[in-house]
Each structure stands twice: as structure tokens, then as C-alpha cells.
Design goal:
Elements lengths: L8 H9 L5 E3 L12 E3 L11 H16 L12 E6 L5 H14 L16 H10 L5 E4 L5 H14 L5 E8 L3 H9 L22 E8 L1 H6 L7 E9 L12 H14 L8 E3 L6 H15 L8 E2 L2 H4 L6 H15 L1 E2 L22 E2 L4 E8 L3 E8 L9 H4 L7 E9 L5 H10 L6 E5 L3 E5 L13 H4 L4 H17 L4 H5 L2 E6 L4 H14 L6 H5 L5 H10 L5 E5 L4 H14 L5 E8 L3 H7 L24 E8 L1 H7 L5 E10 L12 H14 L8 E3 L6 H13 L7 E2 L2 H4 L6 H15 L1 E2 L21 E2 L4 E8 L3 E8 L3
């Protein structure tokens, strides 16, 4: 752990037990004109040329790996996953790029600062530095990101898709967060006082990482077990973008779900590490949820906030606080709430004021709540007191998961029907042009905002950013095909949102205002949409989706990563029905970030496996996954069955990609193995090829190495452009169509398949019997997800 009170876990824990605050004057970011100059700044020294996010993450991740003696555990590198939660990522570098762009023009801005723009780059860097090439993911549910990352790490372990997982969260101090919370009037001018004075929050920076492995494996290698991460729960408020449900219902449901997944009751809980930000709203709502859940079992357990000493570390908070909870279990100590002045909490909760307290700590609940009404709770417990595994582990396998609806849009194909027509005719939809300052126009798959607004409540629409509108439009198209659920069914529907690049427009708009006008230019409307999960919040509010929720930012693997998370939740019974929504916009800032990369952008369209560059496009997809029980209730008919996933990584590092295709091939092989199929069973491959040799070459090698050479391959990006996060989802749409009628869309501008991919379907398309299809995806940084879908019958 790294925080304002220490450079490692031991230092941090000692300071927390002493009630010593690390809140002080901040010099890492400018604070002139803000409500406060104080925050929680880490003592970790900066590394020249490295973004602060990477420095903090590297320090905590290395400590966790060393403490676990992971290098001597005997695990194959490809069986160790890396899952990170972050809200800001490399925001400090992005801010520098925006300042350079505004001051001197795009030609004089350092494009190297954007290599970490995709938030998942922090996971890629950790994987490369530590040599961990298993499943990889980046969760970005704002202030709940670290807790949700722990949840996904548990899913990988429970399902046997990893032998160990390095999981954690990280966020640095940044101008965006200081000015954003300042614009909301949410900062405390002094050291914050959660649950008592409640005048506002202090921002902090930090990182917390844990190494998770199965109890049996840890015992076999005589590992020093600190605590058991026994379960977690997720929920959505579907109430407001920046304020929680005033009744605390969403928080209550997350805590109840976490305890149920662990197999514990509220009466067994010894301590709650509260979200405890110090803002008036949080400090009123969280106690309501705690009292509602625990009062029937007697007096609620002690509840304290370590944010009172380290500040709110945003996306890192859930992971940092999980470290604190694990140490509380290990040492039998309750960490205090500082800065109370001895005043009791108005709620009546025992907030462990000022002084740490010895206690028997066997079961802990750690709460994390976020913008968009995203709630997460994690259960940490003493393994010596519980001889049975978590309840969720017993249910990790067994139920089939069906795809019952899918709809998409991209570029000029602004609805599902136009998209299908474009694929059938192999006619590109990226016919728009975008002006890039200093570089002229470039072709792009722009989407007309007016044409996708139909069916979206205008009151919600006007608060949405472009990514949110794209996602909402995809859900509207989905509901046209599947029918809109009634309120009762909607409130039990989960939502997993994903994006490849994050909300670019509101980040640029917000930063532009601050750079040009200082704190007075910080627009709270833009700030609410700068968090990656903003779209999830808007869509949940729009449709009353109040079930499980998570947000993933994974570049080109975003769709399949989100589908995998939804699949795992449904398969073990944590949800019955989940809508997966993936969207990315294509503003001038996106092209500006790529125009200076030699050979990246094409002026002549996308010709997969033939080189020449790519065309960037906006796009979105919405997919409905259901269990058999949910289909029986909703009356849905299955379009396909989710048969198997392959999740792999390489060690290429930030924005890199290995040219040998080996890790990519492994994802195909793992997906086939999970589906219990041979390569010859695959009737269609939806490729990720995008017209760049650096990508298409490794994918061709991967297909051949996995025994898929000669199988029919279609490259939908030739028609739809590179839509990044939603690209694999649009490929899945083509695969589902092929499963239904055997129609495999052709690849635009391809008459003869290249020797490297003999099965590439030419422009005219083909008709073939398709029982099983494979969808391929990659992300720069070396992450690969593959999916096999089969006919539902």
C-alpha cells in the first residue's frame, strides 16, 4: 500500500493505527483559487518521464508480489492475472498534452504523453514489468473501481481461469479531480471529518494491491495467509449522476449481496470500513444503509473511515481499504476515524473515534460508493475461523448463459437495420470527414447525434456526453428488437458498461476550461461526465437498471471483457439478466491523437490483412445475456449460447503488441478448450484485423498457430471502421447473424484472400453452415480476449 501516510503497507498501517493524519498542503497540482490547498499526497518520489499513476501502482504492486513470494510460488506466468481499478489513470500526462496543444498547437504537442491515454495501460505496464501474462482487465467505476477490480479478480479465481491474481487500485492527485470536486463544492478546507463535521472531502493519492490465490494452493506452498477475501456485491442506484439514493437502498443491496456471496450473515460482521468521505450526503446516506441492514441483528458493528487520514483516493479507495481491512483481520485491530474532535457521530454509529481499538475481527465489510450510483462492498474475513469456502465458490460453475438480443450502430449506420444492411453489402459506413488542426481532413466514421436521439428521454439526453448517447442509442435499438422490460424486470437487470478510450469529449472540455480560465472555468456538468462509468449511470437512470453494475475500460478487448464478466456473474447465480453496453466516440481529439503516428490512419478505407492503415469510427453495441430462468420469465428466445472464453496477455507493455501472435493464439486455443471444440468446428471467425500490419500480421500468425487457418474469416472493420471498444461486439453481431442463417459477411475491397489468411471471405460474402463462431479481439498493451458462441439449440 502507498498513501499519504506511508510508502509501504507497514508504514501506512502503523500511521493509521496511531490515528496520524497525512492530510497537508499539496504541491503536486496547482491549488490557487480552490476551496482548499490540502490533500493526501504520497511521500513516494516521482520518476522522471513517468506518469504519477504508474509510479504509485508500481510501488504497491511490487510490494504485494514480493510479500506473497509470488516468484517462488511456481505458477506459470500465463496463469497469473492482473486486474486494476482506476478512475484517473494517466490523467496527469493527459493534462500536460492538453496544455501543450492549447498553448502551441497540435504539431508542438508531445504525442508520447498520450500513450497512456487508455486507462488500461497501467495494467499493461504492471504485467510487463512483473512478467505476468494471464488475464488482464481495468475496471473504472469511479470511486468504487478498486473494489470492483477485487470482485472481478475473485471471479477469475472462482472459475479457475487463473491460479493467482494481482489485483488492486491506483489513482494520483490531478488537476481534474481537484477542480472537479471544487466545482461541486465538495472539498473540505481542513482535514476532513467523516460522519461528524461532514463539511466535505479531502482528495488523496495512493495505491493498494493484493495477491489473491486459492486457499488450497496457498496452504500447499506454505504461504503466509493474511486474510480471506470471501465475497463481494454490486448494485446500481439508478437515481442521480453525482448523488446517492437518499434512502441508501443501493448501498444496502451491495452489502447484503457481498455477505450472501461469502456465506455470512450481518450478525457475524465485526467491523465496517465505511466509504466515509466526509461529504454531507454520504455521511447521511451510508449510516441509513448500515442501520437498515444491521439493526435487526442488534447494534451495528463499529464503522470507521480511514479516508480521514489518507484522503479519498478515488479509484484506488476500494483496494487501499481492502488492504486496511486485511491487516485489521490479521492484527485484531479496528482502525479509527480521525479528526472527530471527540464528537459522536449524529447517526449514532460507533465510528471508533480517534484511537484504534483491539478487537476480535473475523468478518469485515468494506464499502465503496461512486458517481453514477455505483455501489460495491467487499467481505474480508479470518480464514482460521471459517472452515468452509465462500458460498459463491460453490456456485461458480453450472448454469448456461444465453445471448437473447444484440443491436449495434457505427458511423453512418445509425441504427441496427442500417448496420446489417451495410455488412450484407460490404459497403463502408465511415464516409465522414473530420478536420484535424494543422493536418487537414481525415476520413472517419462520425455519428450524427440527432439521428441517434430517438427513444432517449430528452431530460436525460441533455445531460449526456457523446459516449453516453451512443450507449443509450444502442440500448434503444436493443429494446426495439427484444421489447422494453417492465419496471419489475428492469430493476433486477444488471448493466455492465465498457469503453475502449474513456469519455474523451468531456475530459477535453473540462480541461480546456480549467487551462484557459482556472478554477472559474471548471464546469460541473462536464466533470460529472469525465468519469468512465458516467454512461453506465445515465443508462441505468434511463431504464431503471438497478442490478449488478461494473465499468470496464479495456481498449479493443472491452466488449469481450464486459461479456466475460457478465457471463461469470450469471453462470454462478449472482445475476439472471445483464445488459452489456459498449461505446466509443470519434471526435477530432481522437484523430489528433493518432494523426502523428506514421501509417496509422488510412485515407483510402480499411483493407484488413492488406495494410495501408485504418479509419477510426464511433460505434456502440448492446448485448442482452440471460439465464434459462430469466428467459422463462421474460419470454425471450435465445439467439446464441455463450460457449467459451480465452483470456490471455503478453509482456509488450504500454501501447505495445507482440509480433509473434503467440499470446493471441493462446486466447483462441483457450476459448476452444472452454467450449470443448476443435478448430475444425468453427464455421466463422470474426477477426480484429484493422488494416495495420502491426496488428493484422500477429492475428494471422495466431489464427494459423491455433489451427484456424482456412476457416472462414470476416473482418467487419473493413465496413464499420475501427470502433475500438465496440469492435468485437459488432463482430459478434455478424457472428450471431451467421449462426442464424449461415450468411457470413464479406470483407470490403478484398477479392482474393491473402496467403496469410486463406479463409478471408471476399467482398461478396458467402453462405455456409455455421454451428460455432469465434470472435477475436486485442488491445494495445498486449491483452487478448476471444469468445466462442454456438447455436442455442
Amino acid at each position: 500500500m502507498v498513501s499519504a501516510v506511508g510508502a509501504d503497507a507497514a508504514e501506512c498501517w502503523a500511521a493509521i493505527l496511531a490515528g496520524r493524519s497525512g492530510i497537508g498542503e499539496v504541491d503536486a497540482v496547482p491549488t490557487d483559487g480552490l476551496l482548499t490547498r490540502v490533500g493526501g499526497q504520497s511521500p513516494i518520489a516521482g520518476v522522471p518521464g513517468e506518469d504519477r499513476c504508474l509510479t504509485l501502482a508500481d510501488a504497491a504492486a511490487r510490494e504485494a508480489v514480493a510479500d506473497a513470494r509470488l516468484d517462488r510460488a511456481g505458477y506459470a506466468p500465463e496463469r497469473v492475472g492482473v486486474v486494476v481499478g482506476s478512475s484517473l489513470g494517466s490523467m496527469r500526462s493527459i493534462e500536460r498534452f492538453h496544455r501543450q496543444w492549447l498553448a502551441a498547437g497540435l504539431r508542438h504537442a508531445d504525442i508520447r504523453l498520450l500513450k497512456g491515454y487508455e486507462i488500461h495501460s497501467v495494467a499493461d505496464v504492471l504485467a510487463a514489468r512483473l512478467g505476468l501474462t494471464g488475464p488482464r482487465s481495468l475496471l473504472s467505476n469511479a470511486c468504487a473501481a478498486g473494489a470492483v477490480a477485487i470482485g472481478y479478480g475473485l471471479e477469475l479465481l472462482w472459475a479457475g481461469e487463473a491460479d493467482a491474481v494481482l489485483v488492486g487500485g491506483v489513482d494520483p492527485l490531478a488537476s481534474l479531480s481537484f477542480n472537479g470536486f471544487n466545482s461541486l463544492g465538495a472539498l473540505d478546507a481542513a482535514a476532513c471529518s467523516p460522519y461528524t463535521r461532514s463539511a466535505g472531502l479531502n482528495l488523496g493519492e495512493g495505491a493498494g494491491f493484493l495477491v489473491l490465490e486459492r486457499a488450497s494452493a496457498a496452504e500447499a506452498r506454505a504461504a503466509a495467509v493474511i486474510a480471506e477475501i470471501a465475497g463481494y456485491g454490486l448494485s446500481a442506484d439508478a437515481h442521480h449522476q453525482t448523488a446517492p439514493d437518499p434512502g441508501g437502498d443501493g448501498a444496502l443491496r451491495a452489502m447484503a449481496a457481498a455477505l450472501a456471496s461469502a456465506g455470512n450473515t450481518p450478525g457475524e460482521v465485526d467491523y465496517i470500513n465505511g466509504h466515509g468521505t466526509g461529504t454531507p450526503t454520504n455521511d447521511a446516506v451510508e449510516p441509513k444503509a448500515i442501520l437498515s441492514l444491521f439493526s435487526p441483528f442488534g447494534r451495528p458493528p463499529p464503522t470507521s473511515s480511514t479516508k480521514s487520514m489518507i484522503g479519498h483516493t478515488l479509484g484506488a479507495a476500494g483496494a487501499v481499504e481492502a488492504v486496511v481491512c486485511a491487516l485489521a483481520v490479521r492484527d485484531g485491530m479496528l482502525p479509527p476515524t480521525a479528526n472527530t474532535g471527540g464528537a459522536p457521530a449524529p447517526s449514532g454509529l460507533d465510528i471508533v473515534p480517534e484511537t484504534a481499538r483491539p478487537a476480535q475481527v473475523d468478518v469485515v465489510v468494506s464499502n465503496s460508493f461512486a458517481f453514477g450510483g455505483n455501489n460495491a462492498a467487499v467481505v474480508v474475513r479470518n480464514p482460521a475461523r471459517f472452515g468452509t469456502p465462500p458460498a459463491a465458490l460453490a456456485a461458480a460453475e453450472g448454469r448456461e448463459v444465453f445471448l437473447t438480443g444484440i443491436a449495434g450502430l457505427a458511423g453512418g449506420a445509425t441504427d441496427h437495420a442500417r448496420l446489417l444492411a451495410a455488412l450484407a453489402a460490404a459497403e463502408p459506413v465511415y464516409t465522414g470527414e473530420v478536420e484535424v488542426p494543422g493536418y487537414g481532413t481525415r476520413p472517419a466514421g462520425t455519428v450524427d447525434p440527432a439521428r441517434i436521439a430517438a427513444g432517449i428521454n430528452p431530460a436525460v439526453l441533455r445531460r449526456m456526453d457523446p459516449v453516453s448517447r451512443l450507449g443509450a442509442a444502442a440500448v434503444a435499438q436493443l429494446h426495439q428488437l427484444t421489447g422494453r422490460p417492465d419496471r419489475r424486470l428492469a430493476e433486477r437487470t444488471g448493466l455492465i458498461f465498457a469503453t475502449g478510450l474513456a469519455p474523451i469529449t468531456p475530459v477535453e472540455q473540462f480541461n480546456r476550461g480549467v487551462i484557459q480560465q482556472g478554477p472559474a472555468g471548471a464546469n460541473p456538468k462536464y466533470f460529472a461526465n469525465t468519469v468512465v462509468n458516467a454512461a453506465a449511470g445515465h443508462i441505468a437512470i434511463l431504464h431503471r437498471f438497478r442490478g449488478v453494475t461494473a465499468t470496464i475500460c479495456g481498449g479493443g478487448t472491452s466488449t469481450l471483457n464486459a461479456l466475460h464478466y457478465a457471463y461469470r456473474l450469471i453462470r454462478r447465480g449472482a445475476a439472471e439478466r445483464i445488459v452489456v453496453v459498449v461505446a466509443d466516440e470519434c471526435p477530432d481529439a481522437v484523430l489528433a491523437g493518432h494523426v502523428k503516428v506514421p501509417g496509422f490512419l488510412s485515407q483510402k478505407g480499411v483493407r484488413p490483412f492488406h495494410g495501408g492503415g485504418t479509419v477510426l469510427a464511433a460505434g456502440a453495441v448492446a448485448v442482452l445475456l440471460e439465464s434459462a430462468a430469466s428467459m422463462a420469465e421474460s419470454g425471450a428466445a435465445p439467439l446464441a449460447r455463450i460457449a467459451g472464453f480465452g483470456l490471455t496477455g503478453d509482456d509488450s507493455g504500454m501501447a505495445g503488441l507482440r509480433g509473434d501472435g503467440q499470446a493471441w493464439s493462446r486466447s483462441f486455443t483457450e476459448a476452444l478448450r472452454a467450449a470443448r471444440l476443435d478448430p475444425a468446428d468453427i464455421g466463422m471467425v470474426a477477426a480484429a484485423a484493422m488494416g495495420r500490419d502491426a496488428v493484422d500480421g500477429p492475428e494471422a500468425l495466431a489464427l494459423a498457430a491455433a489451427g484456424l487457418a482456412g476457416r472462414p474469416v470476416t473482418a467487419t472493420k473493413s465496413v464499420l471502421g475501427e470502433t475500438i471498444g465496440s469492435a468485437a461486439g459488432l463482430g459478434l453481431l455478424a457472428a450471431v447473424r451467421a449462426l442464424a442463417d449461415g450468411t457470413i459477411p464479406g470483407t470490403w475491397s478484398v477479392d482474393v484472400a491473402p496467403a496469410a489468411v486463406p479463409g478471408l471471405v471476399p467482398q461478396g460474402g458467402c453462405v455456409s453452415e455455421v454451428e460455432h463462431a469465434l470472435v477475436s479481439s486485442f488491445a494495445y498493451g498486449g491483452s487478448y480476449y476471444s469468445l466462442v458462441v454456438s447455436r442455442a439449440g
